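Hmm, how's this folded?
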Amino acid sequence: MTPESPTVLRCAGRAVARYTTRPDLAPDHSPRPYLHPVTTLAGHPVTETVPEDHPHHLGVGVAVPDVAGHNFWGGRTFVRGRGSVELDNHGVQRHDGFKLCDPDGFVEELTWTAGGERLLREHRTVAATALTETAWALDLTFSLTNVSGRDLSVGSPATNGRPGAAYGGFFWRAPKEATAPLAFGAKADGEEAVHGVRADWVALAGEGWTLVFAGATARTREDPWFVRAAEYPGVGSSLAHDERLPLPAGETFVRRVVTVVADGRLDRDGAAALVRKAVTS
């Protein structure tokens, strides 16, 4: 891949994110486009990339650890009966071009390839919307089509035998701070209470910032949330939580996650109010 200048995303007259389309990364990082840095309207960073604890975590994007045995997440692969092992099975998400690229959002076409084979075609839409003077929303929709000519399926470490590790899909890596962020949902408090649960939204509140993640379609809300706070701060959706997600040849699936990016620490009522505004705006 040839590196190129990031695309800047703006909201309320301010630069709030940069999107790198062709990162210069080692193959075992599963190179893919990502948003970083993403900031609050006051300029507080709320993403991290290539952190020491998980060098394959890349800001905000779409990452899947198992597409027909190919790793589009990065790092080691969890293999039933063997655990996490290093395999030469990493894929690449190739940026094919923008169909639209405006200051407040873009529409992108991508191809997912591995082992010299074209597996998936992706249509990705990203938009930034102002909510209040201290909060904005990042709206990310991805549509994946099986173009391999054969039936595929999406898995996760959980479906491969590692309980509680059903990551894969939309993923947001937040910055690691001196203390772990608070994790909470509409009716629950704490990482253990919101991890692996199907809920309209889930939030992380750090030092001077809050992120509220909401499934913006009925189908997206069926995917449980993957939440980490103590080990590292990150939130994502689980495309393959209890079982593999089948993707027959030629078929497409779509997910949409809207994330509220707010300055300060929101309480439950404040988070819920902004989610309602973000999803309906």
About this structure: The two ends are 36 Å apart (CA to CA).
